[in-house]
Amino acid sequence: MSPDSPPAAVPAPDTTASISPSPPGLIELFVAFAKMSLAGFGGVLVWARRGIVDQHKWMTADEFNETFALCHFLPGPNIVNLSVVFGSRFRGIPGGIAAFAGLVGPPVVIVTILAALYARYGEIDALRRILAGVSCAAVGLLLAVVFRMMMPLLKRRDLVGVVVLAAVFIAVGLLRLPLPAVLLVGIPLSVAITFAMRRRA
Amino acid sequence: MNSDANPIWTLAWTFGLMSLFAVGGANSAVPEMHRVAVDVQHWMTDKQFADIFAISQLSPGPNVLIVTLIGYSVAGVAGALVATLAMCGPTAVLAYYVSRLLARSSHSRWPAIIQAALVPLSIGLMGASGLILALTSDRTWAAALITATSAVLAFVTRLNPLWMLLAGGCLGFAGII
Lengths: 201, 177
Hints:
The complex is a heterodimer.
Chain A: H1 26-39, H2 45-55, H3 61-73, H4 78-121, H5 125-155, H6 159-174, H7 179-200
Chain B: H1 7-21, H2 30-40, H3 46-58, H4 66-104, H5 110-137, H6 141-156, H7 161-173
């Protein structure tokens, strides 16, 4: 990808507090999110940060972290939530829809084509072997993300967090209980414990 | 549960509901997708689910697009679109309203508490995803070794994940697994 700059970019010396003075238009939102999305193999977040903060300077790093934190604690695909919240902040509901369409539209077309190819040729032996190999590696990538996310808990010796983590892992991974049931018990419990711990601290 | 009705509706309510329970993103919902698609609705086999996960990781875009593939295998292009919109729509609307609400009252400390409480839950769910997918993908020692190697490489280095996926594909093609 070429490091192209937005047409309205001002070469101002950027302090941490200054963001681009011109809010992005609808088409700009769509194109920016489509680019991030198509660049993002195995996760779009890195590219979203790069595009929004570094390249277009539409948000400062802190604003981006706050927005992402909000989208992370809400349910659903985080990056999809981020696109809607981000787009609507600049251009209202149409902006949210433009960013969402950019993020999801182009890759959906690609994935649908792949799905059609799989439905048609999925039984071919060579393809089955390749996909089997890819899925082994993909599971490894997922495990690495899990370990990365666990490190802060382990470093803080957050015993409660580790117990909650293990309980959810056993309930969903080993006992295969339905997700809604696990969360209806797990979320209130975890929030109550966290609240109690913070009051004591 | 009228699952013998139009499968499009089944897709819509299944993923619309799941979207609201997917704490921590799409990867935490993989165990639930597996439970519904393989065990409850019998839309696909274990092996097909592992294939679909592999394809979703190979393609660009957000990880949530695994539901597009599930939708396609159930009801073609219409199924793909309905599953995608159902999985993204409800939480997108929720995110929009919550962000407006918080913009007005940003002094509350509840968001921080709820977020801190949800982090271990979502890591546990992603761990469960890893386990379920490892059980379906890693049927031989060689396969488990590939998973372990790519996990260690991704954890220790900053290598582009695409290389690990390509290497896995090549080893699979060579018939190592």
